[in-house]
């Protein structure tokens, strides 16, 4: 697995402090893009939280996921959560170290006591002393939140910085993009009241076990019933122990919403959203605890076309840090078709520039504070497919094609716009994890790549 090292430099550690009017939570920032350019320590929010204890628990839940590995043995170091200001809300996001769980806390306008936020995306320092202080919060005394340095020019900015260096695997970066693509295909499948949500989540098994068949849930009256078979209306719950993080906020839950695709018999990803006063906490789970989002392949078709690259440049100009991006409106403003806008948004997602909110059923604009283009440059199937095209390994023949790879020659057939292949990858997944490298190479060749034997 390719890894880089992400250096996060903060002016000082984030801290929770007592003040005359209650408490003050200062979250320190590290390098972020704003509408006016890159800033070393951007500041884009200062105001009171309407539900302080709930917000503290939600932030801890996001930090829990950033520090967790649900499948592999824990390793030292975790990336601090990312926070985005979208004008009307703050979004805190993280990914588990194993790449299989995506967490997001949306603190909405009512959760921010009506205050506006600036526009920026940056990492925020969530250190162990801060975690301990947040976990001890039991009351709802007024809590003032500051995101960014105190004052317009903090005195410590010229002094020694607090620096964290953490490993940043490429599959973690690709996971952000894949989780967005997967979530865009979800629909609301079930909704429970707060009381029913508590009963359901606390009754789930606490251990999964490698190789165990995935668990499913189906609506049963006012609650959800676990089952081993994906019948009509079922939602996959792969690795129920991965929802344990939601227990931090169950005391204040007003509802639980479950999202997923229509079941087709195979294990799928799903999203679990706890509705809280003025905010939402959502966990999106990969189809298997041993399977991270990075290999799902949902972004590969968009990455394989130069058209999508050009469209993405145009669409990016129109994003404007919107908390809700409407593809139909983007299509009208850009002059592109809806399909091309969606492909452009998928491509922008690989660079961390858009996410997807299942509650709003809409994309949102953010700018992740790292070299997210690595997600494209180091995608194994994409790199391999480009190499096959460059080597002239693709031969086209109408709806049929063949690809020479090593000592093997694979046959690719197109039907209804979808490609199938005779390789083992296709036999194993039947397109459920995106195209294989051979089908991807054929797609590239048909859209203008160089082939050695086109007929």
TrEMBL record:
It comes from the Bacteria. Keywords: Metal-binding, Zinc, Zinc-finger. InterPro entries: Znf_SWIM (IPR007527). Residues 410-447 form the SWIM-type domain. This is SWIM zinc finger family protein.
């Amino acid at each position: 697995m390719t890894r880089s090292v992400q250096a996060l430099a903060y002016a000082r550690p984030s801290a929770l402090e007592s003040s005359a009017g209650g408490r003050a939570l200062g979250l320190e920032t590290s390098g972020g893009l704003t509408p006016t350019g890159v800033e070393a320590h951007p500041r884009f929010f200062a105001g009171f939280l309407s539900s302080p204890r709930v917000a503290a628990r939600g932030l801890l839940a996001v930090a829990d996921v950033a520090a967790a590995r649900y499948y592999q043995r824990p390793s030292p170091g975790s990336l601090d959560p990312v926070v985005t200001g979208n004008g009307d809300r703050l979004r805190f996001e993280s990914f588990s170290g194993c790449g299989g769980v995506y967490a997001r806390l949306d603190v909405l306008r009512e959760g921010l006591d009506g205050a506006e936020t600036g526009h920026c995306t940056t990492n925020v320092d969530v250190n162990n002393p801060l975690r301990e202080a947040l976990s001890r919060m039991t009351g709802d005394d007024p809590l003032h939140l500051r995101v960014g340095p105190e004052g317009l020019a903090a005195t410590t900015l010229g002094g020694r910085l607090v620096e964290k260096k953490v490993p940043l695997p490429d599959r973690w970066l690709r996971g952000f993009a894949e989780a967005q693509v997967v979530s865009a295909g979800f629909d609301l499948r079930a909704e429970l009241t707060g009381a029913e949500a508590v009963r359901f989540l606390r009754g789930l098994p606490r251990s999964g076990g490698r190789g165990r068949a995935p668990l499913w849930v189906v609506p049963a009256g006012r609650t959800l019933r676990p089952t081993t078979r994906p019948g009509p209306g079922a939602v996959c719950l792969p690795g129920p122990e991965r929802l344990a993080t939601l227990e931090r906020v169950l005391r204040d839950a007003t509802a639980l919403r479950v999202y997923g695709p229509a079941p087709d018999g195979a294990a799928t990803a799903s999203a679990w959203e706890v509705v809280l006063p003025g905010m939402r906490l959502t966990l999106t789970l990969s189809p298997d605890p041993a399977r991270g989002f990075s290999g799902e392949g949902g972004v590969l078709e968009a990455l394989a076309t130069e058209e999508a690259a050009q469209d993405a440049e145009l669409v990016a100009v129109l994003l404007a840090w919107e908390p809700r991006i409407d593809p139909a409106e983007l299509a009208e403003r850009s002059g592109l078709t809806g399909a091309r806008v969606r492909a452009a948004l998928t491509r922008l997602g690989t660079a961390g520039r858009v996410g997807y909110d299942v509650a709003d059923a809409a994309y949102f604009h953010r700018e992740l504070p790292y070299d997210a283009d690595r997600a494209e440059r180091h995608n194994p199937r994409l790199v391999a497919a480009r190499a096959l095209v460059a080597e002239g390994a693709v031969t086209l023949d109408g709806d049929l094609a063949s690809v020479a790879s090593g000592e093997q020659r694979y046959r690719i057939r197109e039907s209804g716009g979808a490609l199938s292949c005779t390789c083992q990858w296709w036999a194993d997944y039947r397109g459920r994890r995106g195209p294989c490298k051979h089908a991807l190479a054929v797609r590239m060749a048909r859209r203008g790549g160089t082939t050695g034997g086109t007929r």
